[in-house]
Structure formats: C-alpha cells, structure tokens
Amino acid sequence: MKNHKKAVEKIAASVQHYFKRREPFRIFHGSTNSTRQTTHRRGNTVDISALSHVLQVDTQSKTALVEPNVPMDRLVEATIKHGLIPPVVMEFPGITAGGGYAGTGGESSSFKYGYFNETINSVEIVLGNGDIVTASNKENQDLFRGASGAVGSLGITTLLEMQLIQAKRYVKATYHSVRSIREAIEKVKKETLNPELDYVDGILFSKEHGVVVTGCLTDDLPATAQVQRFSDANDPWFYLHIKEKTFWSVEPITEYIPLAEYLFRYDRGGFWVGASAFEYFNFPFNQVTRWWLDDFLHTRMLYKALHASGQSRNYIVQDLTLPYSTVEEFIDYTTKSFGIWPLWLCPLRQTQLPTLHPHFCETETNSQILKPMLNVGLWGFGPAQHEKFVAKNRELECKLRDLQGMKWLYAHTYYEEDEFWEMFDRQWYEGLRKKYNAETLPSVWHKVRVDLDAQRQAVGNSWGSWALQFWPVGGLWGIRKAIESGEYLVARKSTWRTKDGPSQGG
What we know:
Distance between the termini: 46 Å
Strand content: 15-25%
C-alpha cells in the first residue's frame, strides 16, 4: 500500500496543479476498450497507467483491493488461486476494473448481480481539486453512485474494494437452441428466473437460429462429461462452436468448461468481430487460417488494430439496452436497416436511479424493484461513406429512444447535448460536479460524444489519417501497430489458460 499511496499523492498533486490554474485535463489509463477515436492532444494529461496492481485478496471477507488499471485476466488470476472470483467478470480480458466501474460493465452474470459497479464496496477517488476521498454506500454515497458510469467526469478512481464469490472448477454450460427472435427473448427471460443459474446470455445467428446459454458453477465432473476449452489456437471460437453444435439440435446440449475458459470464452475472435478482419482483407475464413493468425485474433490485438487502422470510423460497435417488451421490434429494425448478424443478448438487472447507466423507469408489479432489461450487442460493418455512417448511427439512436432503450457510452455517441440530457438527470449530475469540484473536468457528454469537426480536421490536416481511408492501407497499418504493441504476448503468457482436459477443435 505504501507504493500505492505515493502514486496517488503524485496524481493528486498533478490534478491540484491543473485545478489551481483552472485548466481542463484528460486522464491517460494506458489502454482502452472504447471504440471512439482520440482526437485530443496529450497535453494537460494526468497519467495513472502505473495503477495496475491487485494489492490484496482477503479470503475471510471475500474482497480484493484492486487498482483501476488491473485487467480482468490479471484480476481473475490473482483471485482464483484463492478459490475466489469477482461476481461479474467482463468477458474481454483487457477490460479494466476501473473501466468497469467508471463505464458500464454488464455480462452473463449481470441478470443476477447487476452491472459491474454493483459488486464494488468502495472506491478511492481523486477529486477535481486534488482531494483524495473514499466513496461507498456509507461515505459520500452520492459520489459513489454517481461516479459509476460517469466515465471519469467526477474524478479519478484510484482504488476499488471489490466483492468476491466462491469459485468452482467448471461452468456446466447448457446450449438451448431457439428458432425465432421471440422465442430467444422469452427463453432468456425465463432462464433468468431460475435461481440455480449463475450465467445467462444468448446469441442470435439469424431470424431462424439462436442459442440461449445457461451456466452453473460446479466442482463436479461426471465421468462421461465433455470438457471444452476455448483459449488455445487449436480450440474453436465459442460462437462458431455453439452454432455448429445447435444447428440441427432440438434438445439442450451440455458441456463442462473450466471456469476461466468460460469467463473469457469470447476473447478469441472478440465475440465474432474478428471475422470482419477476414472479410476486410478478402481472406479465407476457416479453421486453418484462424489457427495460423491466432495471435492477431485476441481482443487486445483486435482493439489495437481497430484504432490504428481508422476502421472504427466505419464499424458499428454498439451495446443497446431495452425493455424486454420492445426488443423484438428493435431487432426487426436492425435486421432491415443494418443486416448485421450475429447479435448478442445479455439480460441485465437495473441499478438504482438516478444513474448514467442504461435504465428504464418501470417497476415490477407491487414492487419498487426496477424491471430487468435486455442488452443487444450490434457489431459489424456500417456504411463505408462516413457521412452515411454518421446518419445511420443517428437513425439508430432515434429508434432506440423511440423504443425506450439506451446505449452504453463506450461507443460512438452522436447525441446533441440537450438531447443527451433528456435521457439523464442533468440537475443531479451537475450538482455532483459542483459539490465535488469536478467542473474543470470534461463533462460526461463531452467525453463520450464523437467530435465530427475534430475528426474532419484530423483527416484534412494529416496525410497519414487521410491515407488510412483507403483499402488496404488502413488494415495493414492496423496490423503493424498491433504487432508493435506486443499485446499478443499477453495472451500467450496468461496463466488462466488451462491445459488439462480434452478439447475438440472446430
């Protein structure tokens, strides 16, 4: 804790310096899982990238003290050796604990535990004036609730105390085949009511084929059970595996997946976004090519390539959360307007209001509990012409609002400021900004919006940015920068990857 304290004091001093001069600043974390391109300069930046350690795992209280830049794979490696895991683990290994708290993190256990922030006991925050405070449900509660989802616009998170739960050796995963959008939605909702389940999510491959995946933590492995892994180059990508398994099936199919392999099952291929790289280069997409290019197809490398290539300007990466009652209509709309498949379905327990997370103000009958929502992951190529891409995103935002849904703020956001604040409690948020001296920090709207003027200026003033627009220059440059980053070595060295048990390729 001594080194942590010194690092935080240095950060606080830097923040205080900018506060006294009334100068805005940005925070450098060292990594990102946002798809927004960065257009600002590195000046007036507070570097917190060194805060990347798990400081303590307490087996008695089942908690962990974690610095904000600890990614999910390092966190799981640190806790699982003690027989514990976080209740909600973002399914991309490189997403950080701080990002999960300050952004929106919801995964297949979120129907049970809620968003990632609901599993946090307390946070240490450096305020906009340089003060260091603790926030929890007992202390500075308004800040604790407000900073979650505020993308760092209320202060800099420097430490989190996280809840942990008992780990088991395996997840008993069951794949339920569904044959329509409506059936998929109804099946997801039904399964979330089963108290024996730990995980629920779904994939829609088309209007006629989908899979709802349910999971239970277990130490028991029947003698005849099939153990399936997804982390090795010889293993199948998860979505392709269950698509093939369920294509002709009527009855549910059960497999046993080592716990960490389940938690990060979407890493290889980035759900299915990695398949788009093959499409971009007109390159064969099969088991051999996926094996050969495996180093490039883990999520850390995919993010590096996406940003460096400039392709994030024309690629739809959106998580869109709606009431169950409007999801089918929304998917009908995306099918006609975007034609993107597969789609991810993730059930979510809402957080209390007011909040900057996606929400819907309707409660269960005779209850104060907010109704659960269903997230739709829409990821795929958009229009190649940038003006049409922006127009399509604006159309998506309007349709989403018409159906009482909201998007996650890590992605491209085009709302005008007044339009943005129609969805959130602006008076509450600005009250927090004033109370906790955050008014010199960029607001949440300024942080999440796509600055189209800055994008155009960057392309117009830079030969390199201009050249990235042309095939295959952007893609090749993205590959080069991803290799230079060395991120592929992280996946190779990860200790959570299991080596025991048979695995079937695919």
